[in-house]
Amino acid sequence: MIVSIRASIEPHTARYKRVAAVLAVLFLAAWLLPSRVVMAHANYVRSIPEADSASPTAPSVVQVWFSEDVAPANSTLTVRDVHGLQVDFGGTQIPQGETKSLLINLRSLTPGIYTVIWKTVSLVDGHDTGGSFPFTVGPASAPVSYAQLLLQDERSARALELPAAGNALVNLFLIGSFTLLTGALAFQALVMRRSSLAEFRQVIAPAYQKLLWVGLAASVGAVAMATAVYVLRAGSGALAGRYGLVLAGRIVFLAMLAVIIRWRKAGAIWTLLPAVGLLLTQSLLSHSAAEDAWLMPLLADWAHFICTAVWLGGVAVLALVVAPVGLKDRSRLKDLGLAISGFSPPAVFCVFAIGITGLAQSASFVGSTDALFATAYGRAIIGKIALLLALIAFGAFHQQVISPRLQEWRLRDITGARTAARRFRISVLAEAAISVVLLVVVAVLVALPPARDVMVDPQSHVLAQTQADAESGLVLTLGVAPAMAGQNQFDLYVRGGDNEPLLSSERIVLRFDNRSTNAGESEVVLQPYGNGHYIAQTGALSMVGQWQVTAIVRRLGMTDARGVFSLDLH
User: Fold this and answer.
1) How far apart are CA 107 and CA 367, in angstroms?
2) Same domain, 215 and 333
3) Can you give the residue range of the structural domain that contains 541?
4) Is 228 left (phi over 0), alpha (psi -120 to 50) or beta?
């Protein structure tokens, strides 16, 4: 019985084996066929000269081998110099018996970098493709050192970054409170000491005394806040250094000012000494104090701060004390006009001093016109200048228009004086508001690194650009040195949305496309250097003109990140 069962199954088993064999062959063919279709392009394999090579001897021909047989009629080689001029004789050939190769004869080449542009049509399926690669005649040009490239790369990434809000806020409290306190003391000593304002000085005394106490309290609070922030960041041990000496000086000067205010001694010229000493403590922590030759920059910064405090603090006294009292009582309009007139000479002197010291500081810390517009520090300088000009315009309006009409209150032009009073009420508040905005800009400036420290030096021939990829959340910064046609060093710095460097990836490439010619794309794979940096040295930027460089960051199981950079090579 068993024998009969086997006899009945064996024919079917043989048939099943034949079916399984056919299915296996069909499956293998189905698996291989798509792969073959995808690969059916005549792609670059190798060449003489080799891609990205350098040789002291100029070749007389260029020969390129491809992955497929190429169509003779529609496949070409072209060789161009750095300016895009054709240096071959034309007439691309297919060497005898080498159907996967193209050859072209060259003219006499001088030392330099050249680009081979190839276009092929595959005889397998008729697909066309193309690309390019460089080669160098003579020694390869030495690029800028990678250390310099990395430094410029990171500088460029920081060029437009704003400071942390906490840093700017601490600076604003310090500078604002010191300015208010110093300006209030200076206004009393330089303006209200005039005999013609003796009675008016007594009238505003209560409000003025309150303003001084507010300024002192704000200064004490600002110093305490700044010290607490410093200790949290640097540790209490850091107070043994310069900051500790500065803090001791601040405490001494604030204590002296408290005695002056308590005993109502404000108004004498000598009472300004503790105030300007307090301003010196801020200058001792400035960019100027960090210079190698620090003395003159420090003195310029101190003078700049003193004049700014006298001017803007005086505006605060006008807006918060003098104007409200003077405008409330019409009999005091003339006194108000005299106060405005008396404030004009020290204000004008301060404006000139601010201009001179500001120009000196800008020349040192900005360094170039390009840095003025390409960095956050430079743009803050521009904003500061615009606000200063607005304040100068307000000051001129008050001195030339408002003050004369207010002083005529008891003479003949009563209507004009009333009109001037209404205008002054509005304009002095606007002037005070602009002064506050100016102090905010100054606080940001103090917290920013100088433009010269973050601006790429044009003489170093280093270029760096940053692009953010919204879909992947990565930020890509591409550094190129020397950013000229020929051999270049490339550094792609990759950061995540949390500003942390990308430490690993599947593959990172740069694709180069010369937009000035139809040269096709070339591609370079970047190698990890560490801490989010990926580098390569290549002559892919082989011609002058407009280049588009596309950076592609590929990560396993995640969306590719792309950054498109535009380079203009001259």
Assistant:
1) 47
2) yes
3) 461-569
4) alpha
